[in-house]
Amino acid sequence: MWQEALQEGLSTLIEYLEPLHLVLAIFPAFLISGAVASLLEKESILRFFGPTANRWVSLSVASVAGAVLAVCSCSVLPMFASMYKIGAGIGPASSFLYSGPSINAAAIFISAAMLGMIGWTRSLSAVFLALAVGVCMDVFYGLKRRKGEVPSPSSVSAFPWRGLVVIASLVSIYFHPHPLYKAVMLGFAVVMGFILFSREKRSMWFKESWSLLRMIFPILVAGVFVASALRALVPEVVIVRLFGEGHFPSNILASVVGALLYFGTLAEVPITRSLLDMGMAPGAAVAFLLAGPALSLPNMIIINRIVGLKKGMSYIVLVVLFSALAGWIYQNVS
């Protein structure tokens, strides 16, 4: 069994560290986060997400941000770190952290194609869950931040179009899976960075990206291995026995298991399909789908490191509870 777990961990790690995946999927996320922190004026960012911004506008925009990205829970972490670092409220940042890997366009349509109504329920529920998690985090911690932890932006600040050009180019990498397209857009973003910004600004961009890479990437690598190895140690038949009734406790357990396991982008969909075929209750499947992409063992470690243990654990508990609640509601109304 341990040998199988080791092989599973190494296999997933080798797949995760595949050069094209690193260069065209993982590293651009760090470049985006570095660009957000260094190429956009803080005053402009705070106008939309800071303490003086309309709370409901910020939360609403953040809760649907994942619809235009196709990133996994690990890729979205550096973007979340930058949002939080530059002064975005904990509520909008938390909504973005949840929505990023949960409601991207690929997840919406692949889930619907393979899981039917459960897939559509997962996508719609994820929007409301992202908003609910953000509202709760804002109520718990955001008000204190508004009272003085972050300076208010000035009434006049230039529109950061140059930084947005670079960031939009990097974000567009996630719009299409073809490696050539990704490589072209990555090169275009770097070239635009050299054209539009001074040497000092470019240096700040790369230093910020490298700083986040050094902080987050080693934990990601270790976490991917450990979480994948743990998955091999838990037989599927045991999980199915625990999740077959559809009661709220089984939904909680489904959320916890989904939160602990590491899934590559959209890997949770075929896994859920198999579990449903083996007898998993639909409500538990919804809970599993909602918690799985939003959390993972390496994800949780890094979130706590970025925002602190209290805020990090609050976010984790909210995701698990709301995912279980959504599954329980679906089980009882479907």
Describe the structure.
There is one protein chain. Helix content is 80%, strand content 0%. The chain has 334 residues and is an all-alpha fold. The longest helix has 35 residues, at 199-233. The radius of gyration is 20 Å and the shape is globular. The two termini are 38 Å apart. Residues 146-156 have low confidence and may be disordered.
Shape: globular
Beta-strand residue fraction: under 5%
Ends apart, CA distance between termini: 38 Å
What is the arithmetic mean of pLDDT? 81
Helix content: over 70%
| Cα-atom radius of gyration | 20 Å
Structural class: mainly alpha
Task: Tally the structural domains.
Answer: 1
Count, helices: 17
Number of strands: 0
SSE string: HHHHHHHHHHHHHHHHH
Q: Low-confidence stretches at least 5 residues in length (pLDDT < 50)?
A: 146-156
Biggest sheet character: none
Topology, element by element:
Layout: H1 2-16, H2 19-38, H3 42-49, H4 55-63, H5 73-85, H6 90-102, H7 105-115, H8 117-149, H9 161-171, H10 179-196, H11 199-233, H12 236-243, H13 248-260, H14 268-277, H15 282-294, H16 297-307, H17 309-333
Helix pairs in contact: 1-11, 2-5, 2-9, 2-10, 2-11, 4-6, 4-8, 5-6, 5-11, 5-16, 6-8, 7-8, 7-14, 8-15, 8-17, 9-10, 11-16, 13-15, 13-17, 14-15, 15-17, 16-17
